[in-house]
């Protein structure tokens, strides 16, 4: 809260000469707060969107870092996907600050000011009594482990949608017409993270040993569907197709069948990843398909 008048910053070079390739500069206190606030917590109106830039066709393999540094715009997008219509941001009542960046009171004030501006000056308060912002996340993770062992109080949530896999129906091929597709519910609405469930029903034929496309669907309105339910008809307002997955699952060389009979087991991990396990009923083989069930940015 009492910054120095200046602070030296050294950036390492990329060459082989470690010392000679460094660049040093003294940052003056004047101008730094506005640079950080406007760069990472810019003021924006409720209609703002995350800024996108044209991506390069080639990129080094690594973490998928965001190109937009405006945290407030990402927060606005997050609040939108939590609302019913996915367009109007959902208004929070309180903010829990954690992480070392929010040790600076100016960051906390800017974020609260921006939030209140989005909702016409509505009262949005911070949850105080955070003893140490540096350890807030670590303490939360430790407490989560404590709760997982049956202690303390756990705030429960769950998936915001029901999820389905597309099952191609059996039947003779007709020129120019695709075979009908049924939707099998594999994740019910509200399934909690860190849980798994066996999907009841008939065996399903799984194609292995060749490249195929797996189609997934989701619904935010069909909240009563249970694992094993099969839908033969639906409207676009009820169910939307989500990510499809094209892959080649390894085949068991000892088996010659084109289709392997399997049953499904669904798991939602603590990180919000949906794992669909396809377990063979004629061998010990199993295959895993996965994708995130947490809402993505548009």
Q: What quaternary form is this?
A: single chain
The sequence of SSEs as H and E is EEHHEHEHEEEEEEEEEE
Shape: elongated
Distance between the termini: 37 Å
**Roughly how much helix do the residues carry, as a percent range?**
10-25%
- DSSP summary, beta strand count: 14
Structure summary:
The protein has 298 residues and is of the alpha+beta class.
Provide the fold topology.
Blueprint: E1 6-11, E2 23-28, H1 32-40, H2 71-81, E3 94-95, H3 105-118, E4 125-126, H4 136-148, E5 162-168, E6 181-187, E7 195-198, E8 204-207, E9 211-219, E10 230-231, E11 240-248, E12 259-268, E13 273-280, E14 286-292
Parallel strand pairs: 3-4
Antiparallel strand pairs: 1-2, 5-6, 5-9, 6-10, 7-12, 8-12, 9-11, 12-13, 13-14
Describe the structure.
The chain has 298 residues and is of the alpha+beta class. It folds into two domains: 27-48 and 66-148, no CATH class; 162-292, no CATH class. Helix content is 16%, strand content 28%. The protein is built from four helices and 14 strands. The chain has helices at 32-40, 71-81, 105-118, 136-148, and strands at 6-11, 23-28, 94-95, 125-126, 162-168, 181-187, 195-198, 204-207, 211-219, 230-231, 240-248, 259-268, 273-280, 286-292. The strands form four sheets. The chain has a five-stranded antiparallel sheet, with no helix packed on it. The longest helix has 14 residues, at 105-118. It is elongated, with a radius of gyration of 25 Å. 13% of the residues are buried. The mean pLDDT is 84.
């Amino acid at each position: 809260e009492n910054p120095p008048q200046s602070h030296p910053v050294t950036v390492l070079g990329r060459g082989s000469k470690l010392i000679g390739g460094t660049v040093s500069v003294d940052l003056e206190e004047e101008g730094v707060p506005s640079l950080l606030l406007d760069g990472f917590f810019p003021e924006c109106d409720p209609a703002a969107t995350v800024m996108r830039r044209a991506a390069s066709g080639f990129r080094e393999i690594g973490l998928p870092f965001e190109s937009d540094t405006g945290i407030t715009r990402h927060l606005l997008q997050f609040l939108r996907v939590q609302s019913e219509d996915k367009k109007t941001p959902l208004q929070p009542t309180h903010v829990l600050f954690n992480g070392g960046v929010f040790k600076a009171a100016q960051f906390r004030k800017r974020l609260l000011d921006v939030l209140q501006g989005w909702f016409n000056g509505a009262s949005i308060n911070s949850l105080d009594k955070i003893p140490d912002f540096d350890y807030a996340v670590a303490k939360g993770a430790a407490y989560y482990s404590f709760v997982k062992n049956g202690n303390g109080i756990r705030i429960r949530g769950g998936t915001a949608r029901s999820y389905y896999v597309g099952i191609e129906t059996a039947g003779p091929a007709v020129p120019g017409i695709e075979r009908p597709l049924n939707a099998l519910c594999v994740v019910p609405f509200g399934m909690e993270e860190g849980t798994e469930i066996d999907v009841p029903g008939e065996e399903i034929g799984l194609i292995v040993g060749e490249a195929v496309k797996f189609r997934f669907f989701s619904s935010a309105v069909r909240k009563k569907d249970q694992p094993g339910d099969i839908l033969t008809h639906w409207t676009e307002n009820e169910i939307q197709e989500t990510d499809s997955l094209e892959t080649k699952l390894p085949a068991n060389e000892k088996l010659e069948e084109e289709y392997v009979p399997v049953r499904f087991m669904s798991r939602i991990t603590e990180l919000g990843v949906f794992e669909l396990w396809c377990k063979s009923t004629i061998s010990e083989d199993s295959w895993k398909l996965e994708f995130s069930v947490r809402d993505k940015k548009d």
